[in-house]
Design a protein that fits this description.
disordered N terminus
């Protein structure tokens, strides 16, 4: 492969191209490839890493934006027809691909300790658990994340904020342009025959759920699997009593982790405890909340007592919230006597506030910790190890709001894609200590994705003893990658197996 390819599509005027090289304007079509060797699960793996940009075009063929990507391809395997391709998205919306790229499935991971806390000097190290041994991976940054940007038109004029929102910044606009982009990528790199998988984290699960049907119906590209990491509701409503009740198993897990439960509960192992709490949630807590103001005082007191035991809060706090505990209050209140708060995305992390009183933490302890290590590492890695030189700022979180969340039918779209494609399987991964997209919500989403139960054998759930980014904890980095590896292998059909019911 040619080591350096640069195609300047921003303008045909040479003087403008020279000016662009000395500014923060993005080169819309650009790629750099380097070759590497690593060891995964004890075996040597040779691979290439291509970092670059690929344009987004409108219906008239005009360049409207360019997306930055990193593509890892194993070079010691020649048959791309049987080699799976994993297409990876993070969430936000507005988040770069950095999180799963250099902490989860890629060939390099952050220099962090066994529990995921930042270490200095900042940087990356070999990931011995990467799934690059079984699948090539492309990490995609949607518009305004990473180095990806909206571009000026042929006259040098930037689209208005409303025009940008319509084209890029909404549930359905996001899915539509990304499907086109994926189709171009697959064509450029000659991957049409390869088994294809999507993986998305957080809002990225909304994105890939929508993409599953969009790729099928508009690009005629059929997938073998979709992996939902710490999923959102993907358009499947869980409001009112369901939303409130589903938090309790997460509360119990977090309280157990911080040794904030009574001795009989604290002495249980986590999974025995969660089995008990989940049963109580479904059979008693949810019905009690559904009764609202017409629940009897005796039942309310009995349920409040049990909720307090499982959550580590006081009966007065549970009663004062009419049995429905706000998650922000929980993060503030659980360890109030210890003068500490717990994290949102990963409640293993601890914070300290200016005042012990209050209804929510001053800041999210886990996010500040993560930005400590991710930001310097990705900038160093892309520029110094992979050789991508640019003065464009790498947006960890980019300007994409207001985001149009209307008409979110991504969960139903995923169900429809599965129904139309007998080869399509779905796996959900969630951390027990995630307070933003809690694991019991993830289970509920899986249960409701196909109410008929006809595709239950193609839906699976995996839980981990960590948070939103479960892969930051060393044992879960190993386990979660192995779950992906096994999911990919199990969902590959036998040679000449027909796609039919």
């Amino acid at each position: 492969m040619i080591k350096r390819i640069q195609v300047l599509l921003l303008t045909g005027v040479f003087c403008f191209a020279v000016q662009a090289q000395n500014s923060r304007l993005l080169v819309s079509d650009d790629a750099t490839t380097t070759n590497h060797t690593t060891v995964i699960q004890g075996n040597k793996v040779r691979y290439s890493a291509t970092v670059g940009t690929q344009p987004v075009w409108d219906e008239e063929g005009n360049t409207t934006a360019s997306l930055f990507y990193t593509y890892y391809q194993r070079t010691d395997i020649k048959d791309s027809a049987t080699r799976p391709l994993l297409i990876s998205f993070n969430g936000g919306p507005g988040s770069a691909s950095v999180w799963m790229h250099i902490a989860y499935t890629g060939p390099k991971v952050l220099n962090v300790d066994e529990e995921g806390y930042p270490l200095q000097p900042y940087g990356v190290k070999t990931n011995p658990h990467s799934v690059l041994d079984v699948a090539d991976i492309v990490f995609v940054n949607p518009v305004n994340t990473g180095f990806s940007r909206v571009l000026a038109d042929k006259n040098g004029k930037m689209p208005s904020k409303e025009e940008q929102k319509k084209a890029f910044f909404g549930v359905n606009a996001d899915v539509e342009y990304l499907a086109e982009w994926i189709s171009t990528f697959v064509s450029r790199y000659e991957r049409w025959r390869s088994p294809k998988y999507l993986i998305g984290e957080s809002y990225g699960t909304t994105r890939v759920s929508g993409l599953a049907l969009e790729l099928q119906n508009r690009q005629w590209m059929y997938l073998n699997g979709v992996i939902l990491v710490s999923p959102t509701d993907i358009g499947i409503e869980r409001k009112g009593p369901v939303k409130a009740a589903n938090r309790l198993p997460y509360f119990a897990a977090t309280a157990w982790y911080h040794k904030a439960l009574s001795e009989p509960l604290q002495s249980k192992d986590l999974f025995s405890l969660l089995d008990e709490v989940e049963a109580f949630t479904i059979n008693q807590y949810l019905p009690a909340i559904a009764k609202g103001g017409f629940i009897t005082e005796a039942e309310k007191q009995a349920v409040a007592k049990q909720v307090a035991l499982y959550s580590g809060l006081s009966i007065d706090e549970v009663m004062g919230s009419n049995l429905t505990i706000d998650t922000a209050f929980f993060w503030k209140a659980l360890l109030r006597e210890r003068q500490q708060t717990v994290g949102r995305l990963d409640s293993r992390y601890l914070g300290i506030d200016k005042q012990n009183v209050g209804e929510r933490p001053d800041y999210y302890a886990e996010l500040t910790s993560w930005l400590h290590s991710f930001t310097p590492a990705i900038n160093y890695y892309l520029r110094d190890e992979l050789g991508y030189k640019t003065d464009v700022k790498y947006n960890m979180f980019g300007p994409v709001r207001p985001w149009d969340r209307s008409n979110d039918k991504t969960g139903e779209n995923l169900r429809q894609a599965m129904a139309q494609n007998p080869f399509l399987n779905v796996m959900i991964q969630a951390g027990y200590y995630d307070g933003a997209t809690n694991y019991f919500d993830a289970k509920y989403t899986m249960w409701q994705l196909d109410p008929s139960g006809k595709m239950a054998d193609r839906l699976s759930f995996k839980g981990y003893e960590s948070g939103h980014m479960m892969y930051l904890r060393a044992p879960d980095l190993d386990a979660a990658n192995q779950d992906i590896r096994e999911f990919i292998k199990a969902s590959l059909p036998a040679k000449n197996q027909p796609a039919k019911y």
